[in-house]
Amino acid sequence: MREMVKGSNTSLAALSEHIDSVIVSLGWGSSTGEGDADVSVLLLDANGKVRSDADFYFYNNPVAADGSVQVLGKTPTADGSEDRISFDLTAVPSEVDRIVVAASRYEGARFGELEDVKLSLADGSGEELLRFAIDDADSVSAIIFGELYRRGEEWKFRAVGQGYDTGLAGLATDFGVDIEDDAAAEVEQDTSAVDDQPADTAPASSDGSAPQGLLEAVPAPRRPEDEAEPRKPTARPRTAKKKVTLPRAAKKTLAENEAWKEAKLFPVTALKSDRDREMRATSVLLSVMAQVPEFGRRLTAAFGAPAGRMETFTEVTLPHGDSPRRPDGVIRVERAGKLWTALLETKTNGNALKADQVQAYMDIAARRGYEAVITLSNDVALEGSPLVDVKIDGRRKHKVALWHLSWAEVAHQAQMLIRHEGVGNAAHAWLLHELLHYLQHENSGCHGFQNMGPAWVPVRNGIDDETLCQGDPRALEVVESWERLIRQVCLRLGGELGQKVLPVRRARRGIDPKTLRAGLADQLCLDGEVQAELRIEGTPGVLAVNADLRTGKLRTSIEIPVPEQGYPLTWAKRLVRRLADAPADLHIETLTDGETGGPRATLERLRPEPADMLPKENGTQIVGFRLSLLKGMGSSRGSAESGFIRSVDDAVHRFYTTVVVHLDGAGPRQVPSKGGATAG
Fold it and tell me: Helices marked H in 63-178 — which ranges?
C-alpha cells in the first residue's frame, strides 16, 4: 500500500491490475463519537467545471445514471465513521477530465475538530492500494481530499488536501455548480468569505456567464444581512426521470373477508426444509437483482462490481478436484466487453457458513479468474472479526475478494428504494415490494440476526449468581452478539425512516476492534450491562440503549441540550408541551453542571407542574435534559415475541416513534410503522 503526501500523484495501473472499478473511502473520527461530515463528488471537464449540475453527486444525488459514480453511504468504524464512493472508471464519460472527491461539515463545524481525517482507495478486489492522511485541516469546513484524473488512456490519483472556509456551497460554486440562495439553508458560512480562500484552491467562476440552472437540493450559504434581496431562481426544465415509490397506506382490498389472501409472486407456504429455503431465497433475490437495475447495482457496487448488464444464475456446477462444487448462485456483470463474476454462498435460518465450502469457492474463483465470493446469511459481520476464516494463497497472481452480506442489509436496501428513494418504474417497485414481503415472512428463513448464541444463557446465569469472571470467553461472545444486534437495529430503523442510522463507537483513535470488545466483555462481567448508542440523522442527540442483565430492564434514552437563550422555566414548559403525546411513564431528568444530579420525575407528574424540573438550589445551571423509557427484556434466545432481540428492537422503535419525533431538531419525517413496510 502506498502512503501519499499532499500534492503527490500516482498511476492506478502501477498499483493494481483491477482498477476498472475502485472504491474511495473518506474517514474521520472524534473523541466523543459525534463528529461527522458529508461527502461529495464532482465530474469536471477540461476547463475544470462541471458540464451541468447533474455532475455534482452528494447525499441528495448519490448515483450517476450511467453507473460511473455511486455514493454508498456511511459505515461505522472503531474510531468514527467512513464514507465510501464506488467509481466505475470504464463508465466515466470521455468528456470528463477529472473527478474531485471532497467532504464538508455543517452547522458551523470544522474539520479541525475531527481526528484521523484520511482517504483510502481500494481496487476491484477490495485490496487497499493507497492512503492519504490529512493532518492540517484546522478551521476549514470543506476539504478536497483528492482527485482521479486522466493522462491519455491512464487513470491517476492526486492527493490534494485543499481546505475551504466556505463549506459545501463555496466548493460547489467554484466548480460551476449553481447554488440556490436560501436564507434557511443548512450551510451558514458567509458567501463573502469566498474571497478569503487560499490561492491554491480550485479556480472560482469569474466569466460572468449566465447560470446553468439551480440545484435545489444543495445546501446554500446564508446571505449577509446588508446584502440585497436574493435573486429569484430561474426556471429550467426537469432533467431527472421521475422516481416511483410505493404508498405507505395499503389500497382498499376487494377481498370478501380477511381469510382471502392476496396472491404473491414469491410464495413461501411450500417451503419445508432449510435446503428449500436456501434455494428459494437465492433464486428470488438474484432474479430481482437482475430485473431491477437500481437494486442490483446498489448491492454489488459495494463489492467492487462495475455498472453494466447483470445476469444471475443458480445451481451452477463448477469443477473442483474429484468432486464438482455447486455454489448457490453466480452474479455476472458485463461492462465494455469485460466480465465481473462473483460466486454466492447462501444460508438461511440459523445455519452457519461452513469454512470448507467458502474455501472451495475461493479456490475455484482464483483458478477461473473470478473477482469475488459473497457469503449471505442472517449473521452480521463485525469489523476485524471475519465470519469465515479462509486461507489466501499469496503465490496466486489473481486476487479474489471475500465479502459478506446479511439478509437484514438486503431488506434495508429494498426498503430504502421502494419507500424513500424510488426506482425507475412501477413494475420495479412492485418487484421490490414482493421481495421485501418474501424476506419478512416468518417461513422464508431470511429474518436477520435472531439468536444471541449459546453463551447468552450461561452469561445471564453467571451474572445472576455472581460467578461470571473477567476473561470468560463467553462474555466476549455476548458482546459480539450485542454489537451484531445493534447494527441490525440500525438497518431496520434506517429503512423505516429513510435516514442514516449508525452505531456510535466511543473509543480512542486507532484502538483495535477486538481489544475494544475485550474491554467491553470485562465491563459486562463487572456491572452486568451492555450499552450502545445510535446516531439518527436529524435528531438533537444520541439515542442510548442500555440492557441491564441483572434487573432484566432495557433503558432507551436521549440527552438534549438546553437552548442557548431563554429562561429555565420556559425551557421546561416548552419541553412538556412538545411531549404532549409521549408516554406518561417517560422519565425526565434535569442535567446540571454540578456533581449531584438535578430533579427527575415521570412526564405524568410533570405535566401539571413543569416547574418541578428546575433545581431548588439557587445558581445551579441547567445544561440539558435526559429522557428515558424503561422496558422489561425477554429472556428467550429464539424468535419468539418475548425474545431479547425482539424486545430491543421494539424498545428502540417505541422510543423513537413516541419520544424522539416530538423533539426540536428531529425535523419533518414519516413516523415508521411496524406494519407499514409489509402492507399488501
Answer: 167-174
Round to whole Å and give the CA distance between 314 and 596.
63
For residue 174, give the amino acid letter.
D
DSSP 305: P
Q: How many CA atoms lie less than 13 Å away from 678 in the CB half-sphere?
A: 12
Whole-number Å distance between alpha carbons of 269 and 287: 20
Task: For 665, list phi and psi in degrees, rounded to 5.
Answer: 90, -10
At residue 194, φ and ψ (nearest 5 deg) are -60, -35
CB 595 within 8 A of CB 637: no
Q: What is the tens place of the pLDDT at every residue in 402-440? A: 999 999 999 999 999 988 888 878 899 999 999 999 999
Q: Which of the 8 DSSP states describes residue 403?
A: E
- Cα–Cα distance, 336 to 270 (Å, whole number): 42
Assess contact for 330 and 346: CB atoms under 8 A: no
Closest CA to 319 of 361, 259, 376, 277: 361
d(CA 39, CA 70): 11
d(CA 46, CA 187): 29
The answer to whether 167 touches 221, Cβ cutoff 8 Å, is yes
C-alpha to C-alpha distance for 187 and 301, rounded to whole angstroms: 30
Amino acid at the residue 674: K
Residues 6+ apart with CB under 8 A from 253: 262
Q: Please state, in angstroms and rounded to a whole number, the distance separating the CA atoms of residues 90 and 12.
A: 13
Mean pLDDT, rounded, for 179-187: 41
Check residue 610 and report its DSSP letter.
Answer: G
Under DSSP, the state recorded for 514 is H
SS3 (DSSP) at 568: helix
Instruction: Give the DSSP per-residue string, 457-503.
Output: HHHHHHHHTT---TT-HHHHHHHHHHHHHHHHHHHHHHHHHTS-EEE
* Number of residues written out for the chain: 680
- pLDDT tens digits, 333-354: 988 788 999 999 999 988 999 9
Q: Residue 548: which pLDDT band, with cuts at 50, 70 and 90?
A: very high
Helices 274-291 and 293-301, axial angle in degrees (round to 10): 110
Mapped onto helix, strand or coil, the DSSP state of residue 658 is helix
- The answer to whether the beta carbons of residues 165 and 196 sit under 8 Å apart is yes
Q: For the chain, how long is the longest CA-to-CA vector?
A: 84
